[in-house]
Amino acid sequence: MCKKLFLLLLTTFSFQLLFAQQNRLAGFPKGSTPKEVGRRLAYHFVDDRHDLYFAQHIHYNEVCTWNGALDYAVKVNDRKLIKLLQDKFEPFFTYEKALLPPMNHVDYNMFGSLALKLYQITKDERYRKMGLQYADTQWELPKNAKREEKAWADKGFSWQTRLWIDDMYMITVVQGEAYKVTGDRKYLDRAAKEMVMYLDELQHPNGLFYHAPDVPFYWARGDGWMAVGMPDLLRIMPQDHKDRPRIMEGYLKMMKSLKSYQRPNGMWNQLIDEPDFWPETSGTAMFTYAFIMGIQQGWLDAAEYAPAARKAWLAMISYIDSRNNVTEVCIGTGKKNDKQYYYDRPRNAGDFHGQAPYLWCAAALSGK
């Protein structure tokens, strides 16, 4: 067989295999299809009020939800929804400018990902300029930097580094979008270097992550940030990137562990490894998204992981109420070395921490 024919057959087989994998995540019952669910949640977001830090600045969980709504709108080519989401942002250039987060914290700087995503859709230079400011200042050491912040910067990491598991979404999302917009490898290399360091420092032998080094609990949403950050970064990394194998290793290790802790009903619990805890929706949606990405990219065996992702998606839908609010969302949670503390955390309906990953899943499942 000539080489060209062999390569053609190999390519054809690869496409057929990828289609078969993705087809395992299709054919959902009416009312549970990703397009239906995504539409409900995205249009609900358009009409929702801002979520602010202490009545001052846009909260990162709103940015996450906005990004998800945009991803969904683009995926299904809903031009009306794209325009509504763009219009919702427009006041930030004028009378809502004071709501823009300052560029001095990892949770604040991730706002730039939203502006950069809008630039990719609209090519409006205002978005590009704003978004890159947030991405760049994440690595520009301020004059009043603390000693620890200077130490991180001296090692080539972001001065905003904290070794909190949340950071591996907050940092990588804005640096990743900056890379997409500019093609400048520095943004990708920054994110990858941080991810490798966080994996080396924080991932446990079972593939999971404590909420904090001094808090030995596997809190679902905390682990969710890592679960989402890794595949989103891997998707944009060239195959020959030096950090790709390490990140893929960490991702696959985490996915294997998560699959073993999925509850029979398809959900994951507030503390992942505690069977007597309650099912928590934001963490479940994040893990489901990580499975979906791996299946679609061919990193995870579809025969093994697609049934788990499908079961999780169908279970998740039952937690959306008649007002299109995701229920059973753990509120914002700081660390505490007390298991009962996690069990007793209040649960909100419509909290953007939950609306966001549901939209990520809907977008990912909504076809090309």
What's the overall average pLDDT, rounded? 94
In DSSP terms (H or I, runs of 4 or more residues), the helix count works out at: 16
- What order do the helices and strands follow? HHEEHHHHHHHHHHHHEHEH
Major sheet description? 2 strands, antiparallel
Uncertain stretches: 13-20
The strands making up the biggest β-sheet line up spatially as: 1-2
The name of the CATH topology is Glycosyltransferase
Organism: Haoranjiania flava
Signal peptide: 1-20
Keywords: Hydrolase, Signal
GO molecular function, one term: hydrolase activity
Structural features, described:
The chain has one domain (29-140, 148-365): Glycosyltransferase. It has 16 helices and four strands. It has helices spanning 3-23, 34-47, 60-75, 79-89, 106-109, 112-122, 125-137, 147-154, 167-182, 185-202, 220-236, 244-261, 281-297, 302-317, 339-343, 352-365, and strands at 52-53, 57-58, 329-330, 347-348. The strands form two sheets. The chain has a two-stranded antiparallel ribbon. Strand 1 and strand 2 form a beta hairpin.
Write the SSE topology.
Elements: H1 3-23, H2 34-47, E1 52-53, E2 57-58, H3 60-75, H4 79-89, H5 106-109, H6 112-122, H7 125-137, H8 147-154, H9 167-182, H10 185-202, H11 220-236, H12 244-261, H13 281-297, H14 302-317, E3 329-330, H15 339-343, E4 347-348, H16 352-365
Antiparallel strand pairs: 1-2, 3-4
Helix pairs in contact: 2-3, 2-16, 3-4, 3-6, 3-16, 6-7, 6-9, 7-9, 9-10, 9-11, 10-12, 11-12, 11-13, 13-14, 13-16
